[in-house]
Amino acid sequence: MVWATLDRNAGRAAIKSLVVEKGTPGFELVRLEHKLGIRASDTAQFALRDCRVPRENLLGEPTINVAHHSSGGFAGVMQTFDNTRPPVAAMAVGLARACIEETQRLLKEAGVDVDHDRPAYAQQAAAAELLKLEADYEAARLLTMQAAWMADDRKPNSLQASQAKAGRACVDIALKCVELCGSAGYGQHELLEKWARDAMILDIFEGTQQIQLLIIARRLLGKSSAELK
Ligand SMILES: Cc1cc2nc3c(=O)[nH]c(=O)nc-3n(C[C@H](O)[C@H](O)[C@H](O)COP(=O)(O)OP(=O)(O)OC[C@H]3O[C@@H](n4cnc5c(N)ncnc54)[C@H](O)[C@@H]3O)c2cc1C
C-alpha cells in the first residue's frame, strides 16, 4: 500500500492510498533489508518508475477535495494512526508480558521466587525488580486498553493512541529482563535475546516515541502542528 499524491499542486489533500501489486510494470524490488529484529517480517526498499496503477486500486474517495480535506488525503492518513497505534501498543504489551513471564520462570529455576504477597523491599533484589517491571507492564496494558476501547467506540482517541504507543515500557522491560537473567537472557538459546531485539521496532514504526510525545504535547497544550514542531 502506497501513499502518493494525485496532484503535486493540490497540497496534502491530494495524497491518496493505492494498492500497488508486486509485479506491476515499473515496480522494482531494490533490496530486502537485514534487520536487528522482526526478521520474520520482510522490510524492503522498492522503486516505482513509470508505474501505472489501475483506477480500482485507489482506496477511498478518488476526488481531490481541497476545501474538506479532513475526510481524506493527508488528514485521512493521520486518522488511520488512531486505529493502528493501539494494535502496535498491544504488540508491545504482549512482548513485555512474554519477557516478564519468561524471566519469572528463569528466576524460579535459579531459586528466586517472586512473592506478590510480600513487600518488594523484603525480597531478593531480582524479585523486587521484577515486581517493578510488572507495575510498568500493567500501566502500559491499561493505556492500550483505553486507546483501543475508544477506537472501538469511535471516540476521538489521538491523545490516548499516542500515549499508549509512546510506551517506552516494552523496550525498558525487555532490556531489564535480559539483564536480570544474565547469560540466559543474552544467549540465543532463550527467547529473551530475540524479544529484546524485536522490542525496538515497536518504539519506531507507526510513529516514533519522539513523535508521539510531540503529538501528546500538542493535544495537551491545544497547539497545532505549525505551532509546535
Ligand atoms: C523495520 C521497519 C518496518 C517499517 N514498516 C513500515 C510499513 O510497513 N509502512 C510504513 O509506512 N512505514 C514503515 N516503516 C517506517 C517507520 O514508520 C519510520 O521509519 C518511522 O516512523 C520513523 O520515521 P523516519 O524513518 O522518517 O525517521 P526520521 O523522521 O528520519 O527520524 C529519525 C529520528 O529523529 C527523531 N525525530 C524526527 N523528528 C523529530 C522531532 N520533530 N522531534 C524530535 N525527534 C524527532 C525520530 O524520533 C527518530 O528517532 C518501517 C520502518 C522500519 C524500521
Q: What does this 3D model show about the protein?
A:
The chain is mainly α. It folds into 2 domains: 71 residues, Butyryl-CoA Dehydrogenase, subunit A, domain 2 (Beta Barrel), CATH 2.40.110.10; 149 residues, Up-down Bundle (Butyryl-CoA Dehydrogenase, subunit A, domain 3), CATH 1.20.140.10. The chain is 50% helix and 9% strand. Helix 1 packs parallel to helix 4, helix 1 runs antiparallel to helix 6 and helix 2 runs antiparallel to helix 4. The protein starts with a strand and ends in an 8-residue tail after the last helix. 27% of the residues are buried. Flavin-adenine dinucleotide binds next to helix 7.
Quick recap:
The chain folds into two domains: 2-72, Butyryl-CoA Dehydrogenase, subunit A, domain 2, CATH 2.40.110.10; 80-228, Up-down Bundle (Butyryl-CoA Dehydrogenase, subunit A, domain 3). It has seven helices and five strands. With 229 residues, the chain is mainly alpha-helical.
**Residue share in β-strands:** 5-15%
Architecture of the largest domain in CATH? Answer: Up-down Bundle
CATH superfamily heading of the largest domain: Butyryl-CoA Dehydrogenase, subunit A, domain 3
Number of domains: 2
The CATH topology of the largest domain is: Butyryl-CoA Dehydrogenase, subunit A, domain 3
Q: Quick one: how many beta strands? A: 5
Rounded mean pLDDT score: 93
Class derived from helix and strand content: mainly alpha
The helix content is: 40-55%
Which small molecules are bound? flavin-adenine dinucleotide
Specify the biggest β-sheet: 3 strands, antiparallel
Individual helix count: 7
Question: What's the overall geometry?
Answer: globular
C-alpha-based Rg, rounded:
22 Å
Order of helices and strands: EEEEEHHHHHHH
The CATH class of the largest domain is identified as Mainly Alpha
* Spans where pLDDT lies below 50 across 5 or more residues: none
Distance between the termini: 27 Å
